[in-house]
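Supplementary Methods. Inverse-folding protocol.

Structures were first reduced to a discrete structure-token string of length 297. This string, shown here, constituted the complete conditioning input.
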């Protein structure tokens, strides 16, 4: 089922993002690695997400051996969960994307998160799909996939302004994106302001809020430098106080994420997209803390 159609059945979704094992690693090629992956998938699936999205490392091969496709296929065939395959256009040719779409059709995977991707400083981008909108247009020609796109409550890190970024977002939606997932943020007020601007511009598709539980100081510092999300003072204090105590930071990071989620649901958010970092224990703690709240979603 296309993700956008899920919103005809449920007011609000609870979904996960995972990353596949790196290209070139054993992945599913040995029974041990397949079992490890299955244990993670199974633990996440037990938390009943509406779908699970699988990230894509730019510069992949977009055939059956692409880790994103292998994991998405496994989610569908073995765990009976709706997968969403991420794909980036920045280093893709038309024939790469054609192959990718063909494999997804064969595997009966009907949801794609269509992204531009980030340029690698050592590699010149191709000019076939310079922006996500170009990829969305190309994928949308036959109307057989549900297309989702990324959005940025604080504006994309390279955007001239939030307003300009939202105008480009509208182009993505007008071209065929039927559902949006936000980048992580740590201050819900950015999300609410963004949603007001998005709706004012006539973008009416469902938007899920991306939430990342912070459980590791280095992880968050790297993430912030890549995506530019701002850390509120309340969060900085948590990092200053518990940053060097792994266990305490994990508890505080989970509590912070739960607090964000409760507030978002109380405000009527259309979905929570949890960046799980492939950690079912943390996803479980969060899921458990909002169990009764989820039933009202
Ligand atoms: P675009 O929508 O193309 O926007 C990129 C920039 O260009 C923005 O600054 C925008 O304002 C500007 N822009 C957009 N359209 C135009 C236009 N027509 N003319 C001029 N400027 C324009 N990366 C990965 O490599 N793999 C992943 O799996 C992955 N998953 C992600 C999942 C989510 C939910 C999010 C939020 C991001 C993800 N990313 C992933 C990161 C993403 O690839 C980067 O943020 C990338 O820099 C932008 O991708 P985009 O699709 O939003 O680009």
């Amino acid at each position: 089922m296309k993700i956008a159609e899920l919103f005809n059945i449920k007011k609000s979704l609870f979904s996960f993002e995972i990353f596949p094992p790196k290209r070139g690693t054993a992945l599913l090629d040995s029974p041990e690695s397949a079992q490890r992956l299955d244990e993670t998938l199974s633990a996440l699936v037990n938390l009943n997400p509406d779908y699970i999205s699988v990230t894509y490392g730019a510069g992949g091969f977009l055939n059956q051996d692409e880790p994103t496709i292998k994991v998405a296929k496994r989610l569908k065939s073995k765990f009976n969960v709706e997968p969403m395959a991420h794909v980036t256009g920045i280093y893709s040719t038309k024939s790469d994307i054609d192959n990718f779409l063909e494999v997804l059709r064969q595997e009966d995977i009907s949801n794609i998160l269509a992204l531009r991707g980030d340029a690698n400083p050592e590699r010149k981008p191709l000019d076939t799909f310079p922006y996500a909108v170009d990829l969305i247009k190309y994928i949308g020609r036959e109307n057989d996939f549900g297309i989702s796109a990324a959005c940025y409550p604080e504006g994309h890190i390279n955007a001239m302004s939030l307003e300009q970024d939202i105008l480009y977002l509208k182009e993505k939606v007008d071209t065929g994106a039927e559902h949006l997932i936000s980048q992580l943020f740590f201050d819900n007020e950015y999300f609410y302001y963004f949603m007001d601007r998005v709706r004012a511009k006539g973008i009416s598709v469902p938007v899920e809020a991306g939430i990342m539980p912070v459980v590791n100081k280095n992880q968050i510092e790297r993430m912030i430098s890549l995506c530019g999300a701002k850390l509120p003072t309340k969060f900085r204090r948590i990092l200053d106080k518990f940053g060097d105590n792994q266990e305490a930071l994990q508890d505080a990071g989970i509590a912070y994420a739960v607090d964000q989620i409760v507030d978002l649901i109380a405000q009527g958010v259309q979905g929570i997209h949890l960046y799980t970092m492939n950690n079912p224990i943390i996803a479980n703690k969060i899921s458990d803390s909002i169990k009764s709240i989820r039933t009202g979603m």
